[in-house]
Amino acid sequence: METLTALPPLQSYGHPLDPGPGELGLLRDSRDAADDFPELRRRFAEDGYLYLPGYLDRGEVLRARASLLDRLAAADVLDPAHPSIEGICRPGAGYVFKPEVTEGNAEVQRLLYSGRLLDFYRQFYGEEVRHYDYTWLRAVGPGKGTNPHCDLPYMGRGTHGHMTCWLPYGDISYELGGLMVLEGSHRRMDLLRNYVFRDVDSFCENRPAEAAEARAGRWSFSGTLSHNPPVLRRKFGGRWLTTEYAAGDFLTFGMFLVHASLDNRTPDRLRLSSDSRYQRASEPVDDRWVGPNPPGHGSAGKRGRVC
Ligand SMILES: [Fe+2]
């Protein structure tokens, strides 16, 4: 259901978002259709995303939060003056990208890759599914969040019909700043065509400087669509859609939907979330993200071509 509730002033990548009801809104809540997969597929086609508050067991999500924070405490990211479960970070923690804290983490692995969530994708696709073995775990301290992008440039070597699951490990207020999506952006191929099919790990072999960068494990382009969410919105039309999240919620979206995050404007709290990916088992997979030790964006994941 569309809701035009007034939202507080919000900021993304250092820019205040345009505050009007035509520019900013709440995510559509699909709890009313949680068991109606034909309807969920219809909404996904229309909106490019599904938001399912409370779909997962809150206790299970909070146990996963505790296990992640214990590992982040061991990695010296947290302020030891507070219990780790509070997620209070050391000053200047910034953007902590630590996928390794999900590896061998039974609570997180069980939550993301078995039970209710995996079954959701099985029913959504109507066939057997597989997931990436790589899990993106983000712990974001006070400051800027993630700038607007689509996911395809990072994972487009297999099917393009896979889906991202964004899952918060704890409650996320507007101040802590969760994910936001750009309404209707998945339908704007006129604006996305020259961006979305580029692969961040491809490089031109016949351009020596570019090839050297790639072999050093760096990207030929960052995959970022914009550094300015309000300007991007004015170009695409539609609204930035977000909400306050609770442990147990998840948001899932396709490869062509533009998304970003609100900034973390708390004085000292980490925002914890993961991105995991699911697809039909029958479709080709991007081999950067599967197997016991996925190459990811490292030098083994680079692909040269003659330009
Ligand atoms: Fe993303």
Query: Compounds present?
Result: fe (ii) ion
Residues in helices, as a percent range: 10-25%
Low-confidence stretches: none
Order of helices and strands: EEEHEHEHHEEEEHEHHEEEEE
What's the shape? globular
How would you name the CATH homologous superfamily? q2cbj1_9rhob like domain
- Note the beta-strand portion: 15-25%
CATH architecture label name: Sandwich
How many structural domains can be distinguished in the coordinates? Answer: 1
CATH topology: Jelly Rolls
The count of helical stretches stands at: 7
CATH top level is Mainly Beta
Mean pLDDT: 94
| Cα separation of the termini | 47 Å
Question: How many extended strands?
Answer: 15
What characterizes the major β-sheet? 7 strands, antiparallel
- What Rg do the Cα atoms give? 19 Å
Structural class of the secondary elements?
A: alpha+beta
Secondary structure elements and their pairing?
Elements: E1 11-12, E2 15-16, E3 24-26, H1 37-47, E4 49-52, H2 58-74, E5 95-97, H3 106-113, H4 115-125, E6 129-131, E7 136-140, E8 163-168, E9 179-182, H5 189-196, E10 202-204, H6 208-215, H7 229-236, E11 240-242, E12 250-254, E13 259-261, E14 271-280, E15 303-305
Parallel strand pairs: 3-11, 10-15
Antiparallel strand pairs: 1-2, 4-12, 5-7, 6-14, 7-14, 8-12, 8-14, 9-11, 9-13
